[in-house]
Amino acid sequence: MQNRFNRSVATLVGIAIAGTGLAAANAAPAAASSYDCPAGYFCGWTGESANGTMWKTNKSVADLGSWDNKIRSYVNRTKSIACVYEDKNYEPWGGYWPQEPNTPGEYSGYPTATTSSIKFVRTERECSQTAYPRWYSEISPKVQGFGDMNGDRKADVIARDEAGRLWFTPGNGTGKLIGTGGWNGMNALTRHGDFSRDGREDLIAREASTGKLWLYPGTGTGSLGARKLIGTGGWNAMNKITAFGDLTGDSRSDLIAVEKATGKLWLYPGTSTGGLGARKLIGTGGWNSMNALVGIGNVTGDSRPDLYAREASTGKLWLYPGTSTARLGARKLIGSGGWNAMANFIAVGDFSGDGRPDLATVTNEKYVIDGYPGNPGWLVTYRGRDTGGVQSGERTDGEWWGLNGVF
Ligand SMILES: [Ca+2]
Ligand SMILES: [Ca+2]
Ligand SMILES: [Ca+2]
Ligand SMILES: [Ca+2]
After folding, report:
1. How far apart are the CA of 303 and the centre of ligand 3, in A?
2. Which ligand is nearest to the CA of 355?
3. Is Transcription there in the keyword field (predicted)?
4. FRET partner for 77 with CA separation of 20 to 30 A, picked from 106, 133, 241, 407?
5. Which domains does the chain have, with CATH numbers?
6. Which DSSP helix (H) or strand (E) runs through 168?
7. Cβ distance 143 to 149 under 8 Å?
């Protein structure tokens, strides 16, 4: 690459000499500048200020060869994130910098030249690991009726990455791409059981720009089929849209949501055609004081699904038992505080393998480790207890950062 660049400079100079007698003016190449880097390329220079000799690439380079440890300034004019590694072969442990796309003229300069490989990725996570988080679950002794999109009795998690892709993680540490893009246009995603009446779990999503509600039917393999409109509009007036399981007792999954303007909690019963029926009031007000609703499954031992809700002002976690009259009963405290340190709740049933639904969470900046907050991106898992609550949390994996939601 260095040779090619030098050749092209020599050629330009040669033309000038042969042509017009302006050779004196052109004999020394103009000072390099960040603007010399063409759109679509990552460019590096031997000088600290986008000067000296320029090198460019539009593909990942595992070994910079003669440019190894030569780049003192660079600009990223691709549309990808450029992982700039200290070591060859995209080895992250020696250190790396995830460089977002730059605008023309920008550059980053350093006195020392330590860059040894460069990789282009869609999300920052991929500089050091997979785009999806590593999720592990045990086989449940019984079918939970939710949380399992591929029917193997292992609870699955769906992760949305920062590039708007959707990943299916079946519980063995692997991930499969099930949505190639555009999912960041959805500002609510929820799944819990079968809405389309084929026995397979489905995903429900609200489109931010239209307020429409879409059903993405599960195919039974963890993938999603062609979507179907189940709410023609107005869903942006609702908060905390939560697939919930069958509260009405007709063996069809139902949806709940809080009306932003009133704080009322509404139940939207699933219908025989895979749509939603006329809504029914199940909470007369005050539900705006809750900043998370979790369809945890049936944890009270009857046949109805139950709800966890987090109180914003206290960080308490409450259990609202589903009742035989398709309502919610008197609440019970199951978490006395600290739950506001959770960015996400993942209620995918029994992942510990004892038959009882469990709760997984991903932490936010408030999460405290060893007395200090500022620990986002931890997966903390809570095994379900037979009293409807959960055991104390286990800090499971610190690599759940840099995602755009888990479901
Ligand atoms: Ca599964
Ligand atoms: Ca279905
Ligand atoms: Ca129902
Ligand atoms: Ca369990």
Report:
1. 12
2. 4
3. no
4. 133
5. 34-127 (2.60.20.10), 157-406 (2.120.10)
6. strand 166-169
7. no
In this predicted structure, the answer to whether residue 25 has a pLDDT above a threshold of 90 is no
> Ligand 4 center to residue 135 CA distance, Å?
15
pLDDT tens digits for 172-231? Answer: 999 999 999 999 999 999 999 999 999 999 999 999 999 999 999 999 999 999 999 999
Alpha helix locations (H) across 34-135?
A: none
Q: Which ligand approaches the C-alpha of residue 135 most closely?
A: 1
Q: What is the pLDDT of residues 284-320, one digit of tens each?
A: 999 999 999 999 999 999 989 999 999 999 999 999 9
Q: Which are the contacts of 348, defined by CB distance < 8 A and separation ≥ 6?
A: 137, 146, 147, 148, 155, 156, 157, 360
Q: By the 8 A CB rule, do 211 and 233 touch?
A: yes
Cβ < 5 A residues, ion ligand 3: 246, 248, 250, 252, 254
Q: What is the pLDDT at residue 31?
A: 62
Give every CB contact of residue 310 below 8 A, 6+ residues apart in sequence. Answer: 290, 291, 292, 294, 316, 317, 318, 335, 339, 340, 342, 345
Cα(261) to ligand 3 centroid in Å equals 26
Of 194, 189, 211, 301, the closest CA to residue 254 belongs to 194
